[in-house]
What does this fold into?
Amino acid sequence: MSLQKCDVVIVGAGFAGLYLLHRLRGLGYSIRMFEAGDDVGGTWYWNRYPGARCDVESMQYSYSFSEELQQEWDWSERFSAQPEILEYAGHVADRFDLRRSIEFETTVTAAHFDEGARRWNIETDKGARISAQYCVMATGCISSTQIPDFPGLSDYQGKTYHTGNWPHAGVDFTGKRIAVIGTGSSGIQAIPVMAEQAAHMTVFQRTPNYSLPARNGPMTPEYARSWKDNYAALREEQRHTPKGAIREFNDVSGLTASEDERRAAYEKGWARGGASLLGSYRDMLLDGSVNETAAEFVRDKIRVIVHDGAVAERLAAKGYPIGTKRICIDSGYFETFNRDNVELVDINETPIERITEQGLRTSDNAFEFDAIVFATGFDAMTGTLFKIDIQGRAGATLRGKWDAGPRTYLGLMTAAFPNLFMITGPGSPSVLTNMMVSIEQHVDWITESLLHMRAQGLETMEPTLEAEDEWVEHVNVVAHRTLFPLAASWYMGANIPGKPRIFMPYVGDAGTYRKICDEVVADGYKGFSFQPNAARVAAAE
Ligand code: N01
It folds into this structure.
């Protein structure tokens, strides 16, 4: 296929790609946009497992860029379920006529920077070859599913599923014996719903997780109105909060609180639902002793909810601070283990030895299942980028450059890969925040950078190595001031054998990060270098 030209290639039609497309197309940039799925929605397109829902309130987990959009859309629940969020993504695509610019069922396989032309050569699995001035990875942080390499995996004769790649037609588990491996956010959401259908469910748990009740419920007209009437101010407030979300946050130390005060604060958070309990004290994720009081509070709740004391103890997370693995938000997760048809297997006590033709074998038992559900997570933050053969200056690969961990400036760009942008890339607050707010901030920042270059006749932009090194160091230092590195989490790359153990997102608070990004611009794009447009330089000479 002949080489086609455009200004910008956007990879991915999730919430990041959709908003970027809307902004750039409106500014007259020519765009090619590719999406592996057959429709928009990104993470909400793929993660269709039973019980999938957002754990940020819908009034906050939605776009703020269009007043009409935010006024006209009605959410039916406090925390929306996946089908409704997907419907919202579809509505946005229709409302802003975005689909016509998206090439679906097309995967970008390579992106090579041509130093002579100062352009990106991009290839897809459909054989397209495109030359673009800019390439933007809107590929999501949690989009490459991982199924552990269990011995015997290919021997299994039953059905297998991964929560992150769920069949679009749904799955009927009625009368089936099923296994669920993995108890992260996805497993914890799916298990209660699947348990109601299955004849029998065996949950294989490696690390028990802290989970807080969502307290989901129907959206009341009054609550929706309280947001819609004040959206301008509330969205602005949201942008400057540490997590990109307005929620109760007690800006005092838990160290000085009495035991009774702490219990009262945690009870309040537990009753309110969602992640509010973690906002009880400002040093919750900084001070181990404060954290332990909240962790023990949650363990005590589990001991009350789960009738069988031994099962409760297995479900109660220990050995790492609460909130340092992504906090889970559930609807009836612990209660599910009181059901007669649900069994918990702690695979630390009895490891999975192999998958068999009929099911799996642990060190002390053989199990038979009609289906195995892998809720085993993702190669987060870098996995999807590494699937694309990305080469920057002098043919250097991104994979090679990030061999010991991702290196970016602000999570937006990486040195020696000019005009390659990442939306919510490693080194930005991304997954630690309300993604909608972080996405909008990155899209706006990238758009303004492109406009700056257009106005100034600049052709390429990239971070200096010095700025990048300083940022990577800063991200690392800030992370190690917190309790986060104490957990073997996917934030640390710990769930993927051989992946470098680096805390990948920027923990230094979304509001502060936004300020830093704005200051970089105000300071003449401090830490970035630009190359002028070659034609302009020649004309000037
Ligand atoms: O994945 P996970 P997830 N043998 O990596 C286990 C977002 N999300 O899909 O903890 C046995 O958290 C693993 O065990 P361990 C959210 O950011 C958001 O659940 O590594 N078990 C763990 O229990 C979330 O954090 C929503 O010891 C193995 C599980 O599999 C992120 O997506 C909803 C194993 C994986 O948990 C990922 O969540 C859902 C092995 N070899 C997800 N390997 C919202 O509500 C892994 N495990 C917005």
Q: What stands out?
A: Residues 54-55, 142, 148, 163, 181-187, 189, 206-207, 326, 347, 375-378, 431, 490, 495 surround 3-acetylpyridine adenine dinucleotide (CB under 6 Å). The first helix runs from residue 15 to 26. The radius of gyration is 24 Å. The mean pLDDT is 97.
